[in-house]
Each structure stands twice: as C-alpha cells, then as structure tokens.
Write a structure and sequence with these properties.
This protein has 229 residues and is of the alpha+beta class. It has two domains: 6-82, Pseudouridine synthase; 85-217, Pseudouridine synthase, CATH 3.30.2350. The chain is built from six helices and 14 strands. The longest helix is centred in the N-terminal third of the chain and has 16 residues, at 30-45.
C-alpha cells in the first residue's frame, strides 16, 4: 500500500475524497488526530471547511492504526468500522481500576500467585466466539443523551446493557508476571478493556489493560500508517 503524507494530498483529493492510515500516538484522542489533519489541510488549501472523520475510536492510552477519511471518503466510515480489528498489548494481573485501564487509579488489589502461564492460555480459549460483553462505564457510549463516562465521573450508578461481540483470536504471547502479553482479533464494538477486567475475574484475581496497540483494521496495517511527525 502506498503511504501518503499531507504534503502529497492534492486539491483533487479533497474534491474526490481520500483515506489515510495514521499511527495514533499515546495520549492523543482520536479526535485530536482528526482536528490536526483538518487544520493542516484547511491551512494548506486556504479553504474554510473540509470534512474529516475517523473510522473507529482509540482510547487516549492506546496507540496504533486509525483510519482517517477526508471529503467524500467520510461516506465509507461505517464500511471501515465494520471490519475486524487486531490488537496487541498487555494486561496487568492482581489489580483493577474503575476504567479497566490506566486512566484511573487502582481501586482493588488481588493475589495472583496461583496463576500459571498454562492457566492464562487455557482461559483465553474460553473467550473465543460470540459473547455478550458489558462495556466499561468509562466509555463514550451514550445513554439518555449523555456519555457514560460523564455518569462515571459524577459517581452515578447506571445500568449498562450488554452487547454481542465476537472474538476470533485470543492468544497469549508472553507472561512476565504480573504482565500478560496478548494478541486479539475481534469484531466491531469490542472493548479490550472489558476483556482485561473479565479475564482477571475469571482467573480468580483481577487485571486491567496496561498497554494497547491496534495493528490491523481488516487488511489495513499499522505498518503502512503515517506517524503524526
């Protein structure tokens, strides 16, 4: 696949639409990337407005592949979103957080001395297939017109509806206690943070998502993605 940087984008690309693969940096939101690219293109072409959107949010503490759609390509966002996603990362055993990742402080500590690498591999197999998953309360899902993370920050308890997801692959790559390195291929709408939390619970311990990187969306690879620099 050909890499395009912003300097190579032409006015015709703006008129006809363009898709870019971007490697989202740590601590940037997906919308930060959208704003950066929109501002860059508006400045370059001296135009007032241009449509720019992304096809699938990555949390600020995650890195990796983000599909950016420009102009008429924004009509294909749902098409890109529906493709399978592949992630690598690490869980940290023995601790949980309210957000299921490192965005919030540890709220509970558990023993994990009983967990062996074979236990990790056997448990990962039980996650394969179609499952019902409860999203984290610290998520951008809307309930009654309000983002769930807003309820969470107000310490309000709300009912979270489970959603059907599908995990196609879940492999344990390495175990260096307390860190579990994984590779997961899954459907749209899957929260890896929820997998981290559920995984620890089923191991009679706790865990949270320590590190996450999206490496593929369908056949698109982060190896072909542009760095923000």
């Amino acid at each position: 696949m050909v890499k395009y940087d912003l300097d190579q984008i032409t006015h015709d690309d703006i008129l006809n639409g363009k898709m870019l693969l971007v490697d989202k940096p740590l601590k940037w939101t997906s919308f930060d990337v959208v704003k950066y690219i929109r501002k860059s293109l508006v400045s370059k072409f001296k135009i007032k407005r241009i449509k720019v959107g992304h096809a699938g949010t990555l949390d600020p503490l995650a890195t990796g592949l983000l599909i950016i759609c420009i102009g008429k390509q924004t009509k294909k966002i749902s098409e890109y979103q529906n493709q399978l996603k592949t992630y690598t990362g690490k869980f940290k055993l023995g601790e949980t957080t309210p957000s299921f990742d490192g965005e919030t402080e540890v709220n509970e500590v558990f023993n994990y001395d009983h967990i062996e690498e074979l236990d990790l591999k056997n448990m990962s197999k039980k996650f394969i297939g179609k499952k019902m998953q409860k999203p984290p309360i610290f998520s951008a899902i809307k309930k009654d017109g309000k983002r769930m993370y807003e309820y969470a920050r107000e310490n309000k308890k709300i009912e979270i509806q489970e959603r059907e997801i599908q995990i196609h692959e879940f492999n344990i790559i390495n175990f260096s206690s307390p860190y579990v390195e994984f590779h997961i291929k899954c459907s749209k709408g899957t929260y890896i943070r929820s997998i981290a939390n559920d995984y620890g619970e089923k191991l009679n311990s706790g865990s949270y998502l320590f590190e996450l990187r999206r490496v593929n969306i369908g056949d698109y690879s982060v190896l072909n993605a542009l760095k923000i620099e």
